[in-house]
Amino acid sequence: MYKVERPSAARPAALEEAPSHRPGAAVEDRLEFEALLSDISAALLATPPEKVEPAVEAALWRVRDLLGADRCVLLAVSADLRLVAVRLASYGPGVSPVPSELNLVALFPWAHQHLLVERAPARAGTLADLPPEAVVDRMGWERLAMVSCLTLPLDAGGRIRYLLMLQTVRQERRWPDSDVLRLRVLGELVVGALERMDMLIGLRRAEARLRSGSELAGLGFFELDFAAKTAFADDRLRELCGLPAGQSIGLEAVEHWENHLHPDDRSRVLTLRQQMLDGRLERYSVEYRFQNPSLGPIRIHHLAQASRRDHAGRALATYGAFRAVSGHRRTEEEMADFGRQLLRNLEEERARLRETIPPDLQKRPQRAGDPVDHLTPRQLEVLKLLALGHSAKEIASALSISTRTVEYHKYQMMETLGLHTKAELMHFAIKQHVVEI
User: Fold this and answer.
1) 8 Å CB contact between 261 and 361
2) How far is CA 60 from the centre of its chain?
3) For the chain, which residues make up each domain, given as ranges?
4) Which CATH architecture has domain 19-200?
């Protein structure tokens, strides 16, 4: 890791870390920070999407205060790496904020190359620590009244999406390896919370789009889970089938639907449905008459397919849509086109939603026992290097294994330990003293 620091022999005394005169002070500091990380992690996980950003700002404030910094800033990075601007921040009393409209790429070109292209942390205890080629960056430091700075790139989804920055503006400060590791763990927690927030907001917006589209088209949606014995029906489908509004329903809703099929259509409709459930049909599209308890006889166009099957091909869960056919019957060709388009749209929307869910949000089972004892020697080696900030490629080279093997070990450790994110894995390594900070 590149350090923009001068040799300690030439460093002013003001930059030296204050020696502790209390036995065990380093251990106390480490335990205090571990407790802070645990509090932040629990708070972020329990925070609803609309309150995540204030919770992140509170976390930045606590870390800034504990580490004695004047600014703790989370910077958002555009996909093309050409825009870096403040997203969230915490500032000490009397400290001027970094302007939110300011694009820091133009102000710090050397840091842009170092952090976003080389993907390496940057730390400088004084302005003089910057390399000779950072001429423009020096002017940026002076503009923002920076005295010392530590900045880390944060990866999300395979690219650098954020930078996490600590600054002092009143006195010079060293940034030891322990600060780098601490800031990295904090960054992982913050990024995980923001990714989770974006995913949940995206899901809500997608649901709103589907709901608006279904209302416009007069569609009613349903979902059945035979394994869990649960059913979902939106308000429009409840109206079409004559089901009570606002009440939870189970699979008895299917029996209600079957009992109200027109006698002349029941056999045809149930045969198609059974073929889909057995796996002989991927989906079905059918029009039939239905005896609605409130509305009387209506004609329904019904689309359905399986969303999950067992090893034998039998449906474990299904979903679909109803639409009331008014005025006249559609031709068979029109009905088939409508069914194919609707189910294709539903499949595309479901696929798009699945892509928005980061892999590290998938829950894994928690296992009992002493957690470290569950790890193999090789997994402990990988865990230590991960916690020290090394990439999968660097770990693979150091251990003479493939990057795929490194990722496999990381996956197995998370599954074994019941952890959800890389940040939790790093926090585990610190808490279990696999690495020291």
Assistant:
1) no
2) 19
3) 19-200, 218-329, 363-419
4) 2-Layer Sandwich (3.30)
Which residues is 221 bridged to in the sheet? Answer: 321
Backbone angles phi, psi at 226, to 5 degrees: -75, -30
pLDDT tier at 349 (50, 70, 90 boundaries)?
A: low
Average pLDDT, the chain: 82
| 363-419 classified as CATH 1.10.10.10 | yes
Predicted TM-score of the model (pTM): 0.54
Phi, psi for residue 319 in degrees, rounded to 5: -150, 165
Type of residue at 143: R
Closest CA to 195 of 395, 362, 350: 362
Residue 270 has which token pair?
A: 């149930």
Nearest to 412 by CA among 430, 399, 425: 425
Query: Tokens 């003001």 map to which residue?
Result: 14
Q: What does CATH list as the number for 218-329?
A: 3.30.450.20
pLDDT digits (tens, 9 = 90+) for 52-85: 999 999 999 999 999 999 999 999 999 999 999 9
Residue pair 223/322 in contact (Cβ under 8 Å)? The answer is: no
Going 11 to 12 to 14 to 18, the CA torsion angle's sign is: positive
Q: In this structure, are residues 120 and 389 in contact, taking their beta carbons and an 8 Å threshold? A: no
Of 9-13, 29-33, 146-150, 237-241, the one with minimum mean pLDDT is 9-13
Burial environment of residue 100 by CB neighbours within 10 A (0 to 12, 13 to 18, 19 or more)? exposed
Helix axes 377-387, 422-431, angle to 10 degrees: 100
| Of the candidate ranges 146-155, 299-308, 334-343, 373-382, the one whose mean pLDDT is the lowest | 334-343
Same fold, 218-329 and 363-419: no
CA-angle at 37, arms to 32 and 41, nearest 5°: 150
Place of tokens 């940034």: 175
Neighbours of 405 (CB within 10 A): 16
**Is residue 419 within a helix (H) or strand (E), and if so which, with residue range?**
none
Number of Cβ atoms within 10 Å of the Cβ of 135:
11
- Find out whether 137 and 130 touch, Cβ atoms under 8 Å: yes
The C-alpha atoms of residue 232 and residue 142 are separated, in whole angstroms, by 60
334: confidence class by pLDDT, cuts 50, 70, 90 = low
